[in-house]
Design goal:
Elements: E1 8-13, E2 17-26, E3 29-39, E4 45-46, E5 49-50, H1 53-67, E6 73-78, E7 84-92, H2 96-110, E8 117-125, E9 136-145, H3 146-158, E10 162-168, H4 169-179, E11 189-195, E12 200-206, E13 209-216, H5 220-231, H6 235-245, E14 253-254, E15 296-297, H7 306-336, E16 344-348, H8 357-365, E17 369-371, H9 387-393, H10 398-404, E18 418-424
Parallel strand pairs: 1-6, 6-10, 11-16, 16-17
Antiparallel strand pairs: 1-2, 2-3, 4-5, 7-9, 8-9, 8-18, 11-12, 12-13, 14-15
Helix pairs in contact: 1-3, 4-10, 5-6, 5-7
């Protein structure tokens, strides 16, 4: 493991909470010297994109002080399905110089939003089992709207931070869960499911390298909205009820199939915009996928705490939809992979803490599933936090810890140099 990076603040700006983790090199890898979480100020973000940099910057500065974070060097992440695309694409095999030129035009094919200027980053993916005679190669492509990045950097400066890098959430989460430690999952195929407030990121990593990314606008907020609809509670009260009583009461029953999205000629899978009917470029006609199955919805038994049963009844349809989309993502990957074997599903994000969600997914997917132990290989040295508190908040910190560890983790030896640049459209 490389330890070239010094103490770094990993900053994860979520739609509901801001998370910070001060990560430092340690004898056994990395450690978390300080961490903290605070609500994201209302009005600071819209659809995951910063709209009030000063308001957000002040909130971050306050959180850093309260958490006892002294480092100012920062690695942060951007998200927001309306302004960011992360995809693994396939192009004809070519040299690095040819690839740099080709990617300027590939952006036109893969960006689903209109923008006067975008920022692009890409990296050729080379695996140990690649066929040397293969005609094509895989490339990881990330494209963000220039305005989104500018607002993000403005907020960092307002918080008094010194931005070192801007990353994307799926890569940061995998860095924490897959790359840290004595190779716990690095040589396996792992599905990382990060269930946040407004979105769920699904990343399938083979041999530590991203093979398949997907973002769903389906997460904790959808469950809270369902609770509000069924109980008549306001948003804050419904959120509290979810946090205290949300659980999967095991069992299942068929639900009506979700409407199929209309995809016109798309063959690559990456960006998701359900509102426009674009299902990430997922080719629903692909023979490897078949027709999507009805979403299995867990059903409550008559026994149990009445409030838990009520909350479960409200969130069950969302859980069923989430399961269906995870299953479709895995099946799509299997249809395009020579092996297709999945070793493990790791859950992170605030909504991963729903009781027995891991057991439910494991039973339905037929794949071992567990809540990720975020601090297993990034122990927390801060004396101000208790083990019980760390266990509660742990799943929410995968991205923040992965961001902080960015320059302390060796890049896979098979990774080719990346290319960066702006493209005005």
């Amino acid at each position: 493991m490389a330890r070239s990076g010094g103490p770094t603040v990993g900053l994860d700006i979520g739609s509901k909470y801001i998370k910070v983790a001060e990560v430092v090199p340690s004898r056994n890898g990395v450690a978390v010297r300080a961490l903290g979480m605070a609500p994201t100020p209302p009005g600071a973000l819209e659809a995951g994109v910063i709209v009030d940099a000063k308001l957000l910057g002040d909130a971050i500065k306050k959180l850093l002080k309260e958490a006892g974070v002294g480092t100012r060097s920062c690695v942060s992440s951007v998200s927001g399905s309306g302004a960011l695309v992360v995809r693994v694409i396939e192009v004809p095999k070519m040299s690095d110089s040819e690839l740099a030129e080709t990617m300027k035009w590939e952006v036109e094919r893969h960006v689903p939003f209109a923008a006067n200027e975008v920022i692009m980053d890409f990296q050729a993916i080379q695996r140990t089992d690649d066929d040397p005679d293969a005609q094509n190669m895989e490339v990881l492509l990330a494209v963000a709207q220039q305005d989104m990045v500018d607002k993000h950097v403005e907020a960092l400066f307002a918080a008094g931070l010194q931005p070192r890098s801007i990353d994307v959430e799926p890569l940061a989460a995998s860095r924490c869960l897959v790359e840290l430690g004595p190779d716990p999952w690095g040589k396996k195929t792992v599905v990382v499911v990060n269930i946040g407030a407004s979105i769920t990121d699904i990343g399938i990593f083979r041999d530590g390298v991203l093979s398949f990314p997907r973002t769903l606008p389906l997460a904790g907020d959808a469950m809270t909205s369902s609770i509000m609809s069924q109980t008549g509670l306001e948003a804050d009260a419904a959120e509290d009820l979810k946090l205290q009583h949300a659980a999967v009461l095991m069992g299942r029953a068929p639900a009506a199939p979700a409407p199929q999205a209309s995809v016109a000629g798309a063959s690559d899978f990456g960006f998701v915009d359900f509102s426009s009917g674009d299902d990430s470029g997922l080719d629903l006609a692909a023979p490897t996928l078949g027709e999507p199955e009805p979403a299995p919805v867990p059903v409550a038994t008559p026994m149990g705490d009445p409030t838990t049963v009520q909350v479960f009844g409200a969130i069950a349809p969302t859980l069923g939809d989430l399961l269906s989309e995870i299953r479709r993502s895995i099946e799509y990957y299997r249809g395009r992979s020579s092996d297709g074997h999945i070793d493990q599903v790791l859950l992170c994000g605030g909504s991963a803490r729903i009781k027995d969600l891991d057991k439910f997914l494991a039973g339905e997917l037929g794949v071992p599933t567990q809540i990720a132990d975020v601090f297993k290989f990034a122990p927390v040295s801060a004396k101000s936090v208790t083990p019980d508190y760390l266990e509660t908040i742990g799943p929410s910190f995968a991205v923040a810890v992965g961001l902080g560890a960015r320059d302390m983790v060796a890049a896979p030896a098979s990774a080719a140099p990346s290319g960066r640049g702006k493209r005005k459209k």
